[in-house]
From TrEMBL:
<protein>
    <submittedName>
        <fullName>Pilus assembly protein</fullName>
    </submittedName>
</protein>
<keyword id="KW-0574">Periplasm</keyword>
<comment type="similarity">
    <text>Belongs to the periplasmic pilus chaperone family.</text>
</comment>
<dbReference type="InterPro" id="IPR018046">
    <property type="entry name" value="Pili_assmbl_chaperone_CS"/>
</dbReference>
<keyword id="KW-0732">Signal</keyword>
<keyword id="KW-1029">Fimbrium biogenesis</keyword>
<dbReference type="Pfam" id="PF02753">
    <property type="entry name" value="PapD_C"/>
</dbReference>
<dbReference type="InterPro" id="IPR008962">
    <property type="entry name" value="PapD-like_sf"/>
</dbReference>
<dbReference type="Pfam" id="PF00345">
    <property type="entry name" value="PapD_N"/>
</dbReference>
<dbReference type="GO" id="GO:0030288">
    <property type="term" value="C:outer membrane-bounded periplasmic space"/>
</dbReference>
<dbReference type="InterPro" id="IPR016148">
    <property type="entry name" value="Pili_assmbl_chaperone_C"/>
</dbReference>
<keyword id="KW-0143">Chaperone</keyword>
<feature type="domain" description="Pili assembly chaperone C-terminal">
    <location>
        <begin position="175"/>
        <end position="237"/>
    </location>
</feature>
<dbReference type="InterPro" id="IPR001829">
    <property type="entry name" value="Pili_assmbl_chaperone_bac"/>
</dbReference>
<dbReference type="InterPro" id="IPR036316">
    <property type="entry name" value="Pili_assmbl_chap_C_dom_sf"/>
</dbReference>
<dbReference type="InterPro" id="IPR050643">
    <property type="entry name" value="Periplasmic_pilus_chap"/>
</dbReference>
<dbReference type="GO" id="GO:0071555">
    <property type="term" value="P:cell wall organization"/>
</dbReference>
Length: 257
């Protein structure tokens, strides 16, 4: 009987802890915008962060190059962020300065880096005597360093992209002859009444990517059209429809309204 009681008590304790974790398991800090465009003719830019939570939060921010090195102190990036650590009260905001440190970067194309925000919530006094899982949330958004010689944005360059079939109906290849990163939100092939999603990726300047139908999805028999959704400088979505131009190429037939 005592053994059964101990098991029940542990289950209740685990459930209570899970409830508190579930209630608090969301990011409280937000960043204004989904990406940062850093013009090459400025030295610094402000990034606004806001605490949407009901408790004060401790925040750490830094920039990395997207590599696998997790040691913040050894990361080499062209930007510093100040203040690197700060506290934000509930419902309040804090602007941080993103400062270009002068590191040499290509001037004929964009470069991409990552802005990181790590939030550490305060200890929850109501569950401090229970076994629990402490969660620290990390948010990352891209920083696009845009040299001053580049005057437009990536969406304005879409008509310069080249689109090719990957036969037999496996997907498409996108060739980017522009100096901009092209960011995709989604893409799919339309064959009759069937829509087959494609695995999308960001395409670097003067690079190319293959976007294929998921291996778990049956390949469409034909390609009537391809719909692609691209992300603009402001984080909005622009949709384009592509139709066959020849046996090997596609062309844009529909522009965003």
């Amino acid at each position: 009987m005592k053994y059964q009681y101990a098991i029940i008590l542990k289950l209740i304790t685990a459930f209570v802890s899970l409830v508190f974790i579930t209630q608090s398991a969301f990011a409280g800090m937000t960043i204004s915008g989904t990406r940062i465009i850093f013009p090459g003719n400025v030295r610094e830019k402000n990034v606004r962060t806001t605490n949407k939570d009901s408790v004060p939060l401790l925040v750490q921010v830094w920039v990395d190059d997207g590599g696998k090195n997790d040691d913040i102190n050894s990361i080499k990036a062209p930007f510093t962020v100040t203040p690197p650590i700060y506290r934000v009260e509930p419902g309040k905001g804090q602007s941080v300065r993103l400062i270009y440190n002068g590191m040499s970067l290509p001037q004929d194309r964009e470069s991409v880096f990552w802005f990181n925000l790590l939030e550490i919530p305060p200890e929850n006094e109501t569950v401090k005597d229970f076994d629990r899982l402490e969660l620290a949330f990390r948010t990352r958004i891209k920083i696009f360093y845009r040299p001053s010689a580049l005057k437009s944005g990536s969406i304005q360059e879409v008509e310069k992209l080249k689109w090719e079939f990957i036969r037999p109906a496996r997907g498409i290849k996108v060739i980017n002859p522009t100096p901009y990163y092209i960011s995709f939100y989604s893409a799919y092939i339309t064959s009759g009444s069937t829509k087959s999603p494609l695995a999308v990726d960001m395409i670097p300047p003067f690079g190319s990517k293959e976007m294929l139908v998921d291996s778990k999805t049956s390949r469409p028999a034909t390609i009537d059209s391809v719909t692609v959704r691209l992300i603009s400088d402001y984080g909005s979505i622009a949709e384009y429809q592509l139709v066959p131009k020849s046996a090997s190429e596609l062309m844009i037939s529909t522009l965003p309204k």
